[in-house]
Amino acid sequence: MIQITMPLNFLGSVYREIRQxxxxxxxMFNLLDQPAEISDKPGAKALEVRKGEVExxxxxxxxxxxxxxxxxxxxxxxxxxxxxxxxPSGSGKSTIGRLLFRFYDVQDGAVLxxxxxxxxxxxxxxxxxxxxVPQDTVLFNDTIRYNIAYGRDGASQAExxxxxxxxxxxxxxxxxxxxxxxxxxxxxxxxSGGEKQRVGIARTLLKNPPILLLDEATSxxxxxxxxxxxxALARAGEGRTVITIAHRLSxxxxxxxIVVLQDGHVVxxxxxxxxxxxxxxxxxxxxxxxxxxxxx
Length: 296
Ligand code: ATP
Description:
Blueprint: H1 2-27, E1 54-61, E2 70-77, E3 82-86, H2 93-100, E4 108-113, E5 116-117, H3 123-129, E6 130-133, H4 144-149, H5 157-166, H6 170-175, H7 193-207, E7 211-215, H8 223-237, E8 241-245, E9 257-262, E10 265-270, H9 272-278, H10 281-295
Parallel strand pairs: 3-8, 3-9, 6-7, 7-8
Antiparallel strand pairs: 1-2, 1-4, 4-5, 9-10
């Protein structure tokens, strides 16, 4: 019997690992358009996150040699700060997320986490340190509990509930007749976009990463949904370094710092108020977006 269960246990853990990496890849779908051929350096060490400081130091990058996307971008995110990347569509915001994960290598400069170049550490340790809240959370045809617990194998019910509470989705789950055992996904209960996103936030919180990358939804949600997601994200970000890829500006006014990208460069940075007062690029983007939202 032992002879049979041992290999089954082993297969089970391999299966879980593959499954986990597939979820991570699935969640990265919006950020990762194309698999890159990146491998660990021989003898690469595990990333040691002590504080969670992130730095892009003079980064140059393009997907194709003849079309540079980032032309010497420096962004410093002190540990525990919450910064937002904004800029016109195509300015390279999601690209910065991909470089942080080392899905591509920079062509010049460096991406550093707590002073360690992402090219010098193992990808497994790098990916374990960064949690992503994607625009669209992939739900599996299984229970809500299972869907949240994807964030970490072996999580207890109490830990799952704590994550769900922080993600502001616990009360909703409790209100369902079958609670955490409710089946969701294609063949189960259809969750709204906002509910799905909060399940995604709970999943990421369970992983408990020191660094969070938020890929904000491109489309406007209704005001109540947006407010509950903003609450959930604010809770999720407590005590962590947070980088938000903001496709719209209305949600990031509270960021510690907003970094404005354009034509491959950082053209402005500061708080929402300071940038509005400066009446520069951000002010222009903000006014235009307000007008669009009013018209809609
Ligand atoms: P948005 O706000 O519209 O999502 P963004 O600022 O996040 O835009 P990126 O997704 O970083 O922009 O893309 C920057 C540029 O790089 C775009 O011109 C895009 O077409 C190009 N690009 C993105 N992914 C690839 C890829 N895999 N291969 C080639 N070019 C790419």
